[in-house]
Prior knowledge:
By secondary structure, the chain is an alpha/beta fold. The chain contains five helices and 19 strands. It starts with a strand and ends in a 12-residue tail after the last strand.
Amino acid sequence: MYLTYLDSNSWLVEIGDRNILIDPWLVGSLTFANLDWLFKGSRPQERPIPEKIDLILLSQGLEDHAHPPTLKQLDRNIPVVASANAAKVVNQLNYQQVNSLAHGEKFTLNGSVEITATPGSPIGPNSVENGYLLKELESGFTLYYEPHGYHSESLKKIAPVDVVITPLIDLGLPLIRPIIKGKEKALEVAKWLQPQIMLPTAAGGDVTFEGLLMNLIKPEGTVEDFRSLLQQHNIAAQVLEPKSGDRTQLNLQKRAVSVSH
């Protein structure tokens, strides 16, 4: 398995001989409802579009996950797996193969990778977006992705999971609960899933953020703090922090399968 971090929430995952592009923001700036004064993300140079993409995987319908300028640059014939809200975005852009997954539903990519939607981040009072479990069918290796740190207890049923991509630090607004939950929630999911490797997402990469919202958002903790937290709780997961744009090979070990009688 190989991972390439493409800044913010964006990843290229090579699994089961397939290339899966997750929550891509590769070109242009990142804003919400074109309110640059409130929030704007910029990068010194645009990311090149990966040459081979077998699937686009979208966890949420907001611009930092379903980024319209990037989606307009991608081939509309690439299959998409998306939350209901993200599916609306790509349908409006005339993507031809859109698979909207409700929680618990599965999609199999070319007989090699099984993708299961899990409950993710609440958006508003009545909408819960998606996390995803990716399983390489030949090896059985698994990867769990959730970009805001909202982890359903239903995940306990799928343990162990080999790789977890989720926030490892908190990002919050004054007097408001964290908008991105890291630290304690990442520790909790590590206890549930017993991963071999954990990687941070959502707050990093070769990007610059500005605007009123960024003056209020306060990060709490560091990735090194999280490593120490794992050690304190005797959790053996390795925490990797890949450099933006670097292709990282994950060295995973087969686990013994216990059989109950």
